[in-house]
Amino acid sequence: MQPGAVVEITGSDAEHMARVLRCVPGDRVVLCDGNGLDYAAELVAVTTARVSARVLSSAPSRGEPPVFLTLLQGVPKADKMDLIVQKAVEAGVSRIVPVFTARTVVAWDEAKAEARRRRWQRIAYEAAKQAQRGRVPEVTRAVALLDVLGTLGEQADQRGHLIVPWEEAGAQGLRAVLRGLKPGSVTVLIGPEGGLTPAEVSAAEGHGAHIVTLGPRILRTETAGLVAASIILYEWGDLGGPAPGWLS
User: Of the chain's two ends, which shows fewer C-beta atoms within 10 Å, N or C?
Assistant: First the structure.
């Protein structure tokens, strides 16, 4: 969109701006196109059904990290995945792939699996807005772990580094591994309650995975992915401020 273009916001976003934020014509706002661009704009008309804004300028979104991070998350019990999706998006994860593993307890039919995916995608959308992300991370359909590992193996150049935190990894820490790798796209695999089996870890190793420890404490599945993502985005990304060297 070029400066001077008028855009319209409808639906729940327009109602939120009018009723909750109490926006009025003349207010300056920042709009996002969902493709990594932010637009400074001035409101020209506000109703609960429709908000019109005139674009003033555009710039790359500051809410997107320089690292494309995919989270392969073992599907947990109950509603834990809701929290995982929300916090992963806020932290800077770029894509979330729920996976069924040997120790996954839940089982869904096709209809329920799709309903869950839609729910998680809505949560990702709301979290992306709250965190001022430039893109809404995709939440895919839940897939079998061995199937997705095979797909990743065929797309190693796009997958980037594959990292698997595991409580039996020994002394090889995530930070040390990251400092020995070239920053780039990265995929993190987290097991469900009970963790990954040795056979699953071996399968990941067969696809080039780095098996690492996150530290001396055993983390819950809803904590481990957030911790791993935060460490990666601190070392390679923008958490804590721009990293020296490759981002400058």
Answer: C
